[in-house]
Write a structure and sequence with these properties.
The chain has about 450 residues and is an alpha+beta fold. It has 16 helices and 13 strands. Helix 10 packs across helix 16.
Length: about 450
């Protein structure tokens, strides 16, 4: 996958904060006789404060750290169409300082106490985390409570972060080859749902926004009843609960947050679109389908289909596109969000390859899935691969904390962290065939020609 496209796709955190401290996660996966994971058992406890803050505790005495994280159920989809980019803006703005943490002091406190921290924004949520040696757990809880209770939102911070985000957009999107691929895809794949705009949003909207608008956004969304607090690592649960009550218990509950419930009409006749990029010399072609949320089993089946089509150098698409010199790069991705998903095939052809030839190569493989069951050997390989990939994704305490928050906030079931492997194991070869027939037909996709701009 194009590195920049992958970065934008996954909405990776862009704050220049300290690098993550990666520590091995405990061996919580049970394996079968082939040493492939079949079951996870990540223990956790969850409860709710009277002000609506949901709390999840995960104890692991084998690590010397504690991760304290807060996921707010606010992302790009919670913005107004004429004020996009607010959630991402607050990813930056809430590092400006609080009533008791002076401007510019946040990172200094973290650094001086042996910690790391960062944040990220997606279409559906905003996530903040701190990782400290376990003896600084109370400090981390105080800092996150400060961010929630009374962040300082003033004109100085707003003006500073506007310029930071403009520079970020220039560097990661406008001046980066293929940097606007995903925003263009969102714009055309979604016509009604707020997934239709990018997480970074419009610079014009941010310029027009008033200080009062930013303060109202904070007051509406960054409240305990719209947040999940995860504390994971070497903790004493009884002591942790006391600190949670001490620092978060008195924060006032906000008004109820209603998530948007916008429905898209199914794509039945497809669509063809063109756009240009002055930073590229090789065109890219995107073939994209709107697919279900991760709340539905079909999303997991589509994960398996994407893996089947793109993993390794022995798959047919790799042989037909890369080994033959017909493409410099291709990928098949299934990315599921809270409300919908995107199944995408994109390719950068080279030489005499045409859009029609790379499209036909893909369609032949889809038709093969629709008309035939994959082999038992390939089926077992896929199940093992996806199960192992998921377990490996939980290879640090940071990843465990974020996963616990994600499954609670976006899918309403914290224990999904222990059920994902079972979901992949439950998929049959017949499911793969049926889902390919249901979602991956030419009339159900949009096609985008992402072309070099004329520089004359």
């Amino acid at each position: 996958m194009n590195k920049q496209f992958k970065k934008i796709w996954s909405s990776l955190p862009l704050l220049p904060v300290l690098a993550l401290l990666i520590l091995p996660a405990p061996n919580t996966a049970k394996a079968n006789k082939n040493n492939t994971p079949v079951e996870l058992n990540i223990a956790f406890e969850e409860y709710e404060l009277p002000n609506g803050l949901h709390v999840i505790l995960h104890q692991d005495k084998s690590v010397p750290v504690v991760v304290t994280s807060v996921m707010y159920h606010v992302g790009a989809k919670n913005e107004s169409p004429d004020r996009t980019g607010f959630a991402h803006f607050f990813e930056h703005l809430l590092f400006e300082g609080t009533k008791n943490i002076k401007r510019g002091e946040w990172d200094k406190i973290v650094d001086e106490n042996g910690g790391t921290g960062n944040a990220s924004t997606s279409n559906d949520r905003t996530y903040y985390f701190l990782t400290f040696p376990s003896n600084n757990e109370e400090l981390a809880l105080w800092m996150e409570a400060e961010r929630m209770r009374h962040a300082v939102i003033n004109q100085t911070g707003v003006d500073t972060q506007r310029e930071v985000i403009k520079e970020e957009k220039r560097y990661t999107m406008d001046n980066m080859p293929y940097g606007n691929m995903f925003p263009v895809l969102q714009q055309h794949l979604f016509t009604q749902h707020p997934y239709r705009w990018s997480t970074i949003g419009s610079m014009e909207h941010l310029d027009k926004a008033t200080l009062a608008e930013f303060r109202n956004f904070y007051k509406k969304f960054y409240v305990p009843n719209n947040a999940t607090l995860v504390i994971a690592g070497n903790i004493n649960p009884a002591q942790t609960k006391e600190w949670v009550e001490k620092y978060f218990g008195s924060i006032s509950k906000g008004d109820a947050v209603v998530q948007p419930a916008v429905k898209e009409e199914p794509i039945t006749t497809g669509g063809q679109f063109k756009t240009t990029d002055r930073n590229i010399d090789i065109p890219a072609y995107m073939f994209a389908y709107r697919t279900p949320s991760k709340k539905e089993k079909d999303a997991y089946v589509l994960d398996m289909i994407a893996a089947h089509l793109s993993s390794g150098k022995s798959n047919t698409l790799y042989k037909e596109l890369i080994n033959t010199g017909n493409a410099i790069e291709f990928s098949v991705i299934n990315e599921s969000f809270e409300d919908y998903g995107i199944f995408l095939y994109y390719v950068l052809p080279i030489g005499q390859s045409s859009k029609q030839s790379v499209e036909k190569t893909f369609d032949v493989e889809i038709q093969r899935l629709q008309n035939n069951l994959i082999s038992e050997e390939e089926y077992q390989k896929l199940q093992n691969q996806l199960a192992a990939n998921f377990v490996n994704s939980l290879s640090s305490m940071e990843n465990i904390a974020e996963s616990l928050a994600t499954y609670r906030v976006l899918y309403g079931n914290t224990n999904l962290i222990n059920e994902v492997v079972k979901k992949y194991r439950s998929i049959t070869r017949e499911d793969i065939q049926a889902v390919a027939k249901k979602y991956l037909n030419p009339n159900q996709r949009i096609v985008i020609d992402y072309l070099p701009a004329d520089r004359n």
